[in-house]
Amino acid sequence: MAETRTPRALWEEEGLVRVAGFLPPDRFGALEAEAAQQVGQTEPYERTETSGHRDGSFASPAHCGMAAGGHALYGLLSDKEVLLVLREMTGMKRLTPFGCVYVTYSKGDFQGLHTDDVKSTLTIGIALTDNLAPMGWAPSLRAVYPEVLGKVVAEHGMFPDGEGFELLKHPYGPGLLQGWAGYDIPHWRSPHTDSRPAILATLSYLDL
Question: Where do the DSSP E strands lie in the chain?
Fold first, then answer.
């Protein structure tokens, strides 16, 4: 069934936004090439504990790799046309570029249920490989307290499924950006099973 809600309504109801038409093939190809080059500079990101933080965010264990964005990714982050569209779609007129990174998932890598730092008001994800598994997504737990999420992990584990827990796919290929309110809605990535690494480019924005 086709989506009939406006982008603003989708953001306000589900904390989700999709932007079409901002990744022509040449620009997407530049991101793919840069990511492949940056993989050699990947540093491990590991979190071993489950904890709530003073800023309201929550985190459970994680293991993956991260590499800094280069010219191509920073160029997209600071693209004025993209920023104007994101502001319009979310209603956040003060939305400001914050940072970007390439996240790599090798076999066995994962990110348990967590919410992002509250400074990251909007996170954009771009799948740069065709084997990136869907992200776990729990809009029914939007804006709950860390104590509630601690109980969710204790009861359902770091990768919950069933009613109230969804999967959010990242379309692969040029043309589409997809973003979410990661500071506000719990999400996770189950252990990567492919022998080939999967790469996600992320862009972060603040509502100052």
Answer: 16-20, 43-47, 51-52, 58-59, 62-68, 95-105, 110-114, 122-127, 135-137, 166-168, 176-180, 187-189, 198-207
3-state secondary structure of 105: strand
Alpha-carbon gap, residue 36 to 129, rounded angstroms: 10
Instruction: Give CA–CA dist 63/21, Å, rounded.
Output: 33
Phi, psi of 199 (to 5 degrees): -125, 130
- Per residue in 54-83, pLDDT (tens digit) is 777 899 999 999 999 999 999 999 999 999
Amino acid at 133: A
Residue type, 155: E
pTM of the model: 0.91
Q: At what angle do helices 7-14 and 80-90 cross, to 10 degrees?
A: 60
**Dihedral (Cα; 183, 189, 195, 200), 10-degree rounding:** -20
How many residues does this entry show for the chain? 208
Cα 13 to Cα 181: distance, rounded to the nearest angstrom: 11
